[in-house]
Structures
1.
Amino acid sequence: MAEKNETSNARDVEARWQRRWAEEGLYRTPEPDGRPTFYCLDFFPYPSGAGLSVGHCRNYVPTDVISRYQRMRGRAVLHPMGWDAFGLPAENEAIAKGVHPRDSTGRYAANYKRQMSLIGASYDWQREINSSHPDYYRWTQWIFLLLHRRGLAYQALAPVNWCASCQTTLANEEVEGGDCWRCHQPVRRRDLKQWFLRITAYAAELLAETERLDWPEHILAMQRHWIGASEGVEFGMEVDGQPGAAFRVFTTRPDTVYGMTFAVLAPEHPLLSRIVSPERRAEVEAYVDRSRTVTEVERQNTERQRDGVWTGAQALNPVTGRPVPIFVADYVLGSYGTGAIMAVPAHDQRDYEFARRYGLPIVEVIRGPEGEGTAGDRAYEGQGMMVNSGPYDGQPSTEAGQAIARALEEAGVGRRTVQYRMRDWLISRQRYWGAPIPIVHCEGCGTVPVPEEDLPVRLPHLPDFLPRGDGRSPLANVPEFVETTCPACGGPARRETDTMGGFACSSWYFLRFADPWYDQGPFNPEAVRRWLPVDLYVGGAEHAVMHLLYARFWTKVLADAGLIDFREPFPRLRSQGIVHAADGKRMSKSRGNVVTPDEVVARHGADTLRLHLLFMAPFDRNVNWDEEGIAGAERFLQRVCRLGEATGQASAPAASGRDDDSLRRAIHKTIRRVTEDVEAYKFNTAVAAMMEFSNSLAAYQERHGSTPAFCEAFETLIRLLAPFAPYIAEEMWARLGRAFSVHQQAWPEHNPALAADETVTLVVQVNGKVRDRIPVAAGLDDGEARARALASERVRQHLEGRDPRQVIVVGGRLVNVVT
Ligand code: ANZ
Ligand code: ZN
Ligand code: ZN
């Protein structure tokens, strides 16, 4: 019963302060006033109908601690929140529930907001944004037009996954083993006209700047891997007996060029139909047709059996002049490198499997340092010594590779290049719930951008927004939307009906928060200068690749357009660990193992939930939810409350010098530890430091009562606790009779002398005479004491170059050096 009263009491306290904070606008972003700024931002959440779980709170609580801490440090803090409401997840969820995304996203966002307030998150709600509102997506469209003007947005045919029975395109994730996830019919690849953003133009910079970002290493590694730079050589190969017919190949191993025994073109290669011999044409065409049913992902599967067809043509090796047969095979991708390769079966596993299957020659040109070579079912892919390579025999393969690359360049047939695995960003969706692409198609003028003053191109309200099934957007069904006049010639024209994928909205939202009311452009340049780049960006690793790359790309384009003066939006990024359910599985509605903040707050209070989330593991570590462990956080907060009951005014006289002294040292050590830990995102050890401190406080109080030193210590604890447990800290602050609000107090400063570890004097004797006294930290071990003594300048003088015969350490306080 008592417990129940305590929690319902906690909930009253929380509700009361939440109301007061909102009334007083406590977390409103300050106007410019010369203070240093701090912009603390969470990844842009998509508000789902499931609401927040305690897993999401693992993101929002730490950024809230940092924001509150920075405010107390005297920074002007921008800590905003908004909704990534457009896009496929929202649309699919709406379809599944039979609701309209316009209604559901607003409702879900309101629920997120309620939950975030419940856990005490100190967002400036005046700056809330929603990417599906026209006053936001108007500017997403504006940036699209900027990209278009700069030649960075273009239309091209692109292969998409197409399910003929569902009459729809599918994302790669929706293709399971070559079949549609919904109807299990085979998926074909089909070419549809799509919009792309030329992110590859920035590949080199996106890669190079990863060196300068303060991000977790595994996220940087994922970015680098995705960009996927390969250094190599591109060179031309002529088709034997067909003057003028030539193709280029890309290789990372020019050193293996003498081992080329065939060449391969991708099924998409434009030269294919021209070079194929008449008697091979039917077979080649059948193969090309078959390969259309295979997705790119599947084509790169190393487990898959390699197959292909001979074209009847031969190509000439530019180094040896020897002819090799040209095959078509789908393990070569049309969209990577040049879409054609020189095949070296002895040193490339894929080529090796292919050659063995079709009985093609295998010529070893490299021997490993231990004599390793191609054997059994493995090609030797390493470096080593050149063999069977004419003038290069006997050279190390790395050097020979350089020499061959140079020779190809000098002969004018090749050049060194860097290939990126990254593709241009396919931004168009044939779906309803997104920002319409602001383009008009005119018979006479072609592709015409919508003039800026006509933005936004509004997304019409369609009660029936289901995908049409013919690969076009549902907007194509709406004549009022489609039919328009050409902005260039005034004639009849048709609007683009594709919409932008959700990643467009999240590629610039961090700029909007600086001044979400601005209506002269996507962002207010002055406010952006004041707040950006973002000081701290926090989110989950699941968005570590696409979102971050796209946002970095848009930032660079805006910088090149002279609109902002920085090129990286998020110089510092941190990524929280995942909270799995108690069973170790991912929390998900279908498993029924989701734990919501609402239920935990109802049982234990919001501050307890916050402390538990911070304390349960290091910030970046994955953990399983453990509700029993919450008792530790609960006990700690109860102890703080009990300590608070006795305080208010000092009621006891000062205690003995020794105890007051060590309490003061504990205060300053705790300030130092908590400060350093928060700066280093070590929230768990920061909480531990406060727990220890509350223990010593309780012990002290038991002995001496509420002395002046106790009151000072307790007040400090409350200020330290404020960012972590904002409700209880506010309540205790009020009980201390202090003016509202604890969240507007200065962060305690530690006194370095008091925070320092206790020092003792190490006395050093040489041959029995005291020669030096060195201040050292207490608790030095013998080895350290010995080292410190021998390092002493005075001791060395008295040794006069002699080696000590014996060094005796006594009790960590006295060292006797005997010569
Ligand atoms: C000859 C060679 C010999 C190769 C050798 C490798 C080892 P990454 O690292 O991914 O860039 N390649 C080139 N274009 C390709 C395409 N469109 N589809 C499939 N494979 C392609 O790999 C570069 C290597 O992958 C290139 O170097 C080429 O094979 C192949 F002992 O050329 B190599
Ligand atoms: Zn299907
Ligand atoms: Zn026109």
2.
Amino acid sequence: MHNFSSIAVIGAGQMGCGIAQSIAAAGIEVKLSDATPDLAQQGLARIHLRLLGQVEKHKLQPEEADHIVANITPVPSLESIHNCDLVIEAASEDLALKLELFRKLDQYAKPEALLASNTSSLSITTIAAATRRPQNVIGMHFFNPVPVMELVEVIRGLATSDITQTRILRLSEALGKKPVCSVDKAGFVVNRILLPMLNEACFLLDEGVASATDIDSAMQLGCAHPMGPLALADFIGLDTCLAIMEVLQKELGEVKYRPAPLLRRYVAAGWLGKKTGRGFFDYND
Ligand code: CAA
């Protein structure tokens, strides 16, 4: 048993909403928070829409969809998390922002609550040090789209206790996920392997080795990847991809992690992928 009856999810973007939906589908109450009450409300509306799509495809009963939605309460501010047993932070991949959030979460969450970060590359030890309960802080890294992807990376910081890790492993299993443990080293397992591949695809495109469509077709047809690297980068968000490459480069210090200049240019242009309607591909129609 994991013993979590109420979980707060901080951040109602694509990862936060996916995490909230997966927890609610497991019958656990979720409090969904974002920088403004409106953003949290909009997050719940997007989850509802996606579930209705599943109902239309006869993959979900209408009452199951209603039940999942009823388990999620958008909350107006962080003060509302005081009764939660676990808080999962899914904000942008920005260390300063996460440190500030964890200081606040430590202040508002009850003393015995666990605090988890969905960071895709940042140090759990550093994040935990912003709180007075580093033994209760852990990495819980989900994959997009969260309701579909089975993996959760569970990352222990230097001070994370055994009991915290055990409880998070049990919760991951209760959500129907397969947890894999990683030490607290930049990028953990998946992003240390995946992001350099996506970055390399950006170099190929910039060098004119092949068109965006052909680069993606090559990896789909030649390696049986469900999405090509450029479509996957668009799906993850090019700002997130750049942020992860910058962490890999800074923390691991090797030239092979240098972000592709083309990736930087796209982010500078505000072409962040699917979420802005334009990235390596166009999503406006
Ligand atoms: N949210 C929730 N569910 C979604 C979804 C979303 N954004 N997008 C698709 N799905 C669901 C669909 O509803 C569908 O579910 P059902 O089978 O129950 O109907 C299922 O996923 C398959 O979707 P589709 O049939 O529409 O499309 P598809 O077969 O092409 O699959 C995909 C879509 C699952 C996204 C597939 O292309 C895929 O697996 N892509 C690779 C995804 C991946 O690599 N993710 C990891 C990214 S790395 C990461 O997230 C970590 C990080 O830190 C950067």
